[in-house]
Amino acid sequence: MPATQPLGKLRLGVNIDHVATVRNARGGAYPDPIRAARIAEEAGADGITAHLREDRRHISDDDIARLMDTLSLPLNFEMAATPEMQAIALRHKPHAVCIVPEKREERTTEGGLEVAREENQLAHFIAPLRDAGCRVSIFIAADSRQIEAAHRIGAAVIELHTGAYCDAHAEGRLEERDAELERLREMSAYAHSLGLEVHAGHGLTYDTVQSVAAFPEVMELNIGHFLIGEAIFRGLVPAIAEMRRLMEEARAPA
Ligand code: PXP
């Protein structure tokens, strides 16, 4: 049964990867993603997300260490299912780990994880992370097969990939956008009915966030690229504050 009322406060995780992208464009230390994380906290973020990619194209190992040392907000550590990343996660024991697919040639995380095909390996992979006290989340497409597999391997959380919905919106493919949104809505309810906590993210903007924030089962949105871009024009605090406002407006009872 889909929930009719929000199941709780909707949290905002601010992804700071692209502060590091700008820093790395020139090398050096500027702008510092850890400073962005502190400002995000002041602006009302509930958590910080950072993706340590295999090629270290944005966030670095040192960024993760500094976030763990200095951040008071929970860190959601995004990583591929590789032994190297598992060892890093087990060393730091962040509040949350989100397992994402990763291809070197992609510009961003293009699709969800293929959990159904890799079920046994993934079950083994996440077990030590769970045992270390990390909340394990799996980034997947809105697809019942993947949700069921994520449930079977013992993940606590799924994060639904909203990229296809956001792309269809941006490109004016409105029927596809609405169909994607419907799929996200149904799969949020389905995942919740299995006992999974539901998160969502990728590509969300001021224009697309409210439709997803309105799903009562969704408990957390992770948003990065748009917020860091918007911060160039209005500053990070107002950019985040406006996102929070839109999320809360969408969540308010009609
Ligand atoms: N959630 C996950 C699992 C991601 O991999 C990303 C991108 O790193 C995001 C959310 C945030 O996406 P965006 O930067 O497009 O807001």
Task: Reconstruct the topology from this structure.
Blueprint: E1 11-15, H1 17-26, H2 33-42, E2 47-51, H3 61-70, E3 75-79, H4 83-92, E4 96-99, H5 119-131, E5 135-140, H6 144-152, E6 157-161, H7 163-170, H8 174-193, E7 197-201, H9 209-213, E8 218-223, H10 225-234, H11 236-251
Parallel strand pairs: 1-2, 1-8, 2-3, 3-4, 4-5, 5-6, 6-7, 7-8
Helix pairs in contact: 4-5, 7-8, 10-11
Bound molecules: pyridoxine-5'-phosphate (PXP).
Pyridoxine-5'-phosphate is lined by residues 15, 17, 51, 78, 98, 100, 108-109, 139, 159, 201-204, 222-226.
Report on this model:
- The chain is an alpha/beta fold and 254 residues long.
- It has one domain (11-249): TIM Barrel (Alpha-Beta Barrel), CATH 3.20.20.
- Helices cover 48% and strands 16% of the residues.
- It has eleven helices and eight strands.
- Strand 2, helix 3 (61-70) and strand 3 form a beta-alpha-beta unit.
- Helix 4 runs parallel beside helix 5, helix 7 (163-170) packs antiparallel against helix 8 (174-193) and helix 10 crosses helix 11 (236-251).
- The protein starts with 10 loop residues before the first strand and ends with a helix.
- The structure holds pyridoxine-5'-phosphate.
- The site of pyridoxine-5'-phosphate (PXP) has 19 residues, from strand 8 and helix 10.
